[in-house]
Amino acid sequence: MTHSRLVTRFLSRLNGKWLYIGLGIKRWLLLLWLGMVVSALGAASLFVSGARPAPLPEPFDFLTLQFLDRIVGGLLCVGVGIGMVVIAIMRLNRSLVSAFSSDDTDLVELVYRKRVRDKGPKIVALGGGTGLSTLLRGLKEHSDKLTAIVTVADDGGSSGRLRREMGILPPGDFRQCIAALADSEPLMSQLLQYRFGSGAGLEGHSFGNLFIVAMAGITGNFERALAEASRVLAVRGQVLPSTLHTVTLLAETRPANAPHDPLERVAGESQIGHRGRPIERVYLDPEHCPAYPGAVRAILDADLIVAGPGSLFTSVLPNLLVEDVRHAIEASNAVKVYVCNVATQPGETDQFAVEDHLAVLQDHIGSGVFTHVLANGNFNIPLPATSPSHIVRARGDAACRAAIQFDDIVDEAKPWRHDPQKLARAILKFYQAAKHTRGMDTDR
To answer: How much is the pLDDT for 121?
Structure first.
């Protein structure tokens, strides 16, 4: 959309409120009008000079600089008028955009971004914790058709307390996703993530968790609370639970140095990573809980489905262990990508290679669900010497590597995490290549 069309639409919808004092609009509207008048008079002067020698009426004769050579005066008048119009549009642009943007982005850039996002693919991202919010923070710049499907197995910290005391789904991972997708993200993220350091009953709780709980009380249920919170905070896309049922994540672990000893069962997402024992498998209790219908619809309608990054056993797999979610992913025609973590997670994926992440995923949900893996290929940024984690690399199995796409997706400031923008670009590049390949296969 051009500036002229935007101005025309703006003028067509002009009402008395635009004339309020302090908006910084009236002066530029007046300048725009004067510029159009001066330009029109200059054009009229040039037309008259070419068509007949008759002079214009006396007031317009002065305004159109008829005391100069008529052609020179007409051209000068047109130039001045156009200059006034350009200045007026630029200043209107700045006045209008300043109401919606805190930076110096111009109106054309905002319109371009909006149009690009409107044309973006329908993306479903599954996970929880910091990994999912990192992914969403990058993807929201490329598409408005985002759906975050969030695990409801969290039982630690503020979320765990609210889950036990209020009988609601744990709000923590939902809070992080809403903060990542909010248009006013920097300040809103700080507000939603703010954690009370003192106060009876408040200590340890984050403001965002309490906000979602309060919204659930007002609206009557948790899913409506997510929708209304997203609307209030101008969230791009939607944030949905994988299931509305209260589930507990359980793990079977084995002793590191005694592989033949009986397996130990660990209950609770917050407890699994603290045992320091290799994890054989994780599962939900109850195992056959139904999926949230909105999540299933989003998966079946998606162009691209992304699982991860995030804690493999406690953030990514809990969503995929909901049977209806897994079946919907299998039935979907979307491009399906698993994003491998940049670094190992102590207590969960110690010493894991890329192939190990993929093997665990396939052991739990089958080998045909996610056939593509995106992994970090930049190993030039070392982890801090004190870090208990290790960079995740590929082991070198040629058969497995054929399904792995490597790219530079690491955050240089925090090399144990993904960079949101790098990750989003790599995923969309991967998606476009996969879509192109599919198109070629269809043509054949």
So the answer is: 95
Max Cα–Cα distance, the chain, nearest Å: 109
Domain for residue 296, yes or no? yes
- Spatial distance between the Cα atoms of 3 and 75, rounded to a whole number of angstroms: 23
Residues 6+ apart with CB under 8 A from 23: 95
Asked if 240 and 302 count as a contact pair (C-beta separation under 8 A), the reply is no
User: Residue 32 pLDDT > 60, yes or no?
Assistant: yes
Question: Are 259 and 361 found together in one domain?
Answer: yes
Give the residue, 86 or 352, on which the prediction is more confident.
Answer: 352
pLDDT at 321 over 80: yes
Distance in angstroms (rounded) separating the CA atoms of residues 408 and 378: 5
Query: For residue 381, is it within any domain?
Result: yes
Query: Is 116 or 320 the better-scoring residue by pLDDT?
Result: 320
What CA–CA distance (Å, rounded) separates 13 from 301?
A: 36
> Tens digit of pLDDT for each residue in 34-66?
878 777 767 776 666 554 455 556 565 555 555
Which of 415, 408, 424 lies closest to 337, judged by CA?
A: 424
Contact predicate 236/257, CB 8 Å: no
DSSP, collapsed to helix, strand or coil, labels residue 337 as strand
Residue type, 190: Q
- For residue 1, the model assigns a pLDDT of 47
- Expressed as residue numbers, the domain containing 111 is 3-116
pLDDT in tens, 233-265: 889 999 999 999 999 999 999 877 766 778 899
Other CB atoms within 10 Å distance of the CB of residue 162: 22
Is residue 104 domain-resident? yes
Phi/psi region, residue 438 (left: phi>0; alpha: psi -120 to 50; beta: rest), is: alpha
Q: How many CB atoms lie within 10 A of CB 118?
A: 10
- Are 29 and 142 within one domain? no
Cα–Cα distances (Å) from 120 to 85, 114, 140, 167, 432, in that order, read 34, 10, 10, 37, 11
Q: Tell me whether residue 205 is in a domain.
A: no
- Based on the fold, state whether residues 100 and 129 are members of the same structural domain: no
Angle at 23 (CA atoms; ends 22, 26), nearest 5 degrees:
100
Measured between alpha carbons, how far is 211 from 293 in angstroms, rounded to an integer? 24
Q: Which residue has the tokens 């969503």?
A: 319
The CATH number of the domain holding residue 251 is 3.40.50.10680
**Parallel/antiparallel/unpaired status of strands 335-339 and 123-127:** unpaired
Give pLDDT, residue 147.
97
Q: Confidence band (pLDDT; 50, 70, 90) for 101?
A: low
Q: Which of residues 116, 136, 167 is at a domain's end?
A: 116
Instruction: Describe the crossing of helices 207-219 and 172-181 by its angle, rounded to 10 degrees.
Output: 100
